[in-house]
Amino acid sequence: MGELWGHIVNDFSGLFAGDGSAWLAFGQVILIDIVLAGDNAIVVGALAAGLPADQRKKVIAIGVIAALVLRIVFALMVTWLMGIVGLIFAGGLLLLWVSWRMWREIQHGGESPGSPEIEGDEHTGIRAQKSFAGAAWAVAVADVSMSLDNVLAVAGAAREHPGILMVGLVIAVAMMGVAANIIAKYIERFRWIAYIGLAVILYVAVKMIYEGVVDPEIGLTTLSVFGG
């Protein structure tokens, strides 16, 4: 705990001292958290849209709680995960897929009934579930994917700044629990926020793929089959 606090103090001291790399990492983390929290809320709302009001509210609540728990679990595992050879490369590929999915959503690939509780979920093209069990299961599966996306993206953006990384994960949890619906509304109203977030995630994905190959400690080149 003392070591973690030391990283936080060191990284945020760098922010106040005008460290360009620390500010870049912090800015990327905030944008990633904002966009993915809103995306999470929009997907959950679209999946629950076909249910009666009482069941819909329960599914949305399940989605928010599951997202909170999963982000905390993945955050606790992230330091260990990022130390596995090849995982940064795999995470970069996953984020490329996330970028493609976000691009399609931003382009309004289809219409959905939308849930009244969530603003901005009417243009996802996601088919609403017709049963409580089906909606709850679909939301749980989506939450696993989106929570892992969030944690990997933050870890990739702030890998060299562990203090910013951990604070960014705390912010991700807070945004999902408190402000996800508000964020979804503003992302729908101001589309440029989503485009900037998409560009940042794409940049982090390419950076992770590159580092996942050449990193001297956990890159693919450390494996004998790649390194010769």
TrEMBL record:
The keyword Manganese belongs to this UniProt entry's keyword annotation: no
Subcellular location(s): the record lists: Membrane
Mind naming one GO cellular-component term on file for this protein? membrane
Does the record's keyword annotation contain Transmembrane? yes
Give the signal sequence positions: none
Q: Where are the transmembrane segments?
A: 20-47, 59-78, 84-103, 135-158, 164-183, 192-210
Provide the alphabetized UniProt keywords: Membrane, Transmembrane, Transmembrane helix
Q: How does it sit in the membrane?
A: Multi-pass membrane protein
Give the family this protein belongs to, as stated in its UniProt record: Belongs to the TerC family.
Write down what this protein is called. Answer: Integral membrane protein TerC
